[in-house]
């Protein structure tokens, strides 16, 4: 009996080792080519959009940049692949991108049937509705029979169907592949309402010629935890992406930012010293240089800096922290400790 156990555990061990032999492949190939290939949206203000010179910026782009800073000590070592909602998962599965950071909702189906892993949540969102003020509607429950501009391949499509079924109402979906097509159609009056994650409604509203002509309705009909995604089968890479986000959150919690990170190197606080790679496990567990998190904070900033700059009060979107405040400030953002 004992012998059978010994053989079984030897087989299990061998299997475990052959899986870990695979792990690390992404970090190796990223290092070899010298940049992170990051899948982003085709253009969504505040989250991932490019200027006319092709420079990408946004809260999602900052996660790509954070990973590059952790790996290379420079946030600029990223190449971007603009992807529609329909294209995004295939691009990750085929290895065309090393990671996806594109307002993507973490769901059971996506996590378990597509060969993908969600590395965390960089924005807690929920689905809402945008209507023209002229429509004279104050609640989504008044939208029976309405037509909706909506993006294909999204959770938005599925939630809308659930909501209308649950409230015994009917609707007509008008679907598009890209957000600029969706917003243009809404503006041209091709649909009564536009529905998407609320953060995106704010981003799309400022694209209208007259943003004051449209309003966001009060209903939030779903949970949309948005976060970066990697392909399954490479735990080391998964950890790097996950802890890059956690480092930004821990930095905010500990009061370390891009402006004071150099000075914080002299801090006596053991939490800060561990974050900055001055003591503790440093970069060893992740297979990175010791100052991986310090590089993120220097080049990208902590979570609060990224939030405010891209979508918060210092940005055109003017979104309040709300659920995206840290856990000790009334929000949901909570990163495990660096120790
Ligand atoms: N969070 C939802 C929706 C994501 C989504 O793609 N939303 C559209 C609505 S605005 C978008 O971001 N489009 C950007 C683009 O066209 O690239 C999901 O993961 O399915």
Automatic annotation (TrEMBL):
Pfam family, one: SBP_bac_3
Domain Solute-binding protein family 3/N-terminal: 35-257
Keywords recorded for this protein, A-Z: Signal, Transport
Gene3D superfamilies xref list: Periplasmic binding protein-like II
SMART domains: PBPb
GO annotation terms (biological process): amino acid transport
Keyword hit for Glycoprotein: no
CDD domains, per database record: PBP2_BztA
Signal sequence residues: 1-23
SUPFAM superfamilies: Periplasmic binding protein-like II
Listed InterPro entries: Bact_solute-bind_prot3, SBP_3_CS, Solute-binding_3/MltF_N
Family: Belongs to the bacterial solute-binding protein 3 family.
Name recorded for this polypeptide: Amino acid ABC transporter substrate-binding protein
Provenance organism: Solemya velesiana gill symbiont
UniProt lineage: Bacteria, Pseudomonadati, Pseudomonadota, Gammaproteobacteria, sulfur-oxidizing symbionts
């Amino acid at each position: 009996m004992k012998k059978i156990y010994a053989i079984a555990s030897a087989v299990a061990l061998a299997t475990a080792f052959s899986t870990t032999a695979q792990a690390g492949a992404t970090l190796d190939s990223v290092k070899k080519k010298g940049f992170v290939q990051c899948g982003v949206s085709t253009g969504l203000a505040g989250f991932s959009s490019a200027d006319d010179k092709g420079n990408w910026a946004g809260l999602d782009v900052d996660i790509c940049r954070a990973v590059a800073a952790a790996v290379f000590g420079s946030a600029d070592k990223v190449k971007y692949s603009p992807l529609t909602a329909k294209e995004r998962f295939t691009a990750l599965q085929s290895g065309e991108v090393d990671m996806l950071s594109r307002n993507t909702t973490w769901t059971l189906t996506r996590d378990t049937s597509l060969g993908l892993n969600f590395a965390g949540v960089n924005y807690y969102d929920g689905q809402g509705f945008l209507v023209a003020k002229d429509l004279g509607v104050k609640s989504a429950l008044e939208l029976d029979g309405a037509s909706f501009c909506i993006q294909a391949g999204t959770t938005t499509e599925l939630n809308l169907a659930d909501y209308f079924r649950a409230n015994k109402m009917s609707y007509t979906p008008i679907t598009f592949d890209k957000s600029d097509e969706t917003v243009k159609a809404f503006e041209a009056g091709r649909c009564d309402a536009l529905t998407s994650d609320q953060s995106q409604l704010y981003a799309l509203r400022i694209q209208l010629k007259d943003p004051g002509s449209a309003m966001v309705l009060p209903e939030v009909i779903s949970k949309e935890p948005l976060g970066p995604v990697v392909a399954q089968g490479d735990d080391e890479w998964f950890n790097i992406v996950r802890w890059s986000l956690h480092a930004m959150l821990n930095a905010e919690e500990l009061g370390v930012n891009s402006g004071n990170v150099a000075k914080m190197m002299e801090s006596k606080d053991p939490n800060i010293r561990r974050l900055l790679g001055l003591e503790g496990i440093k970069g060893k567990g992740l297979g990175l240089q010791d100052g991986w998190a310090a590089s993120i904070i220097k080049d990208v900033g902590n979570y609060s800096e990224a939030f405010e700059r891209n979508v918060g009060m210092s940005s055109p979107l003017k979104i309040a922290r709300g659920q995206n405040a840290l856990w000790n400030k009334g929000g949901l953002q909570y990163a495990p400790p660096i120790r």
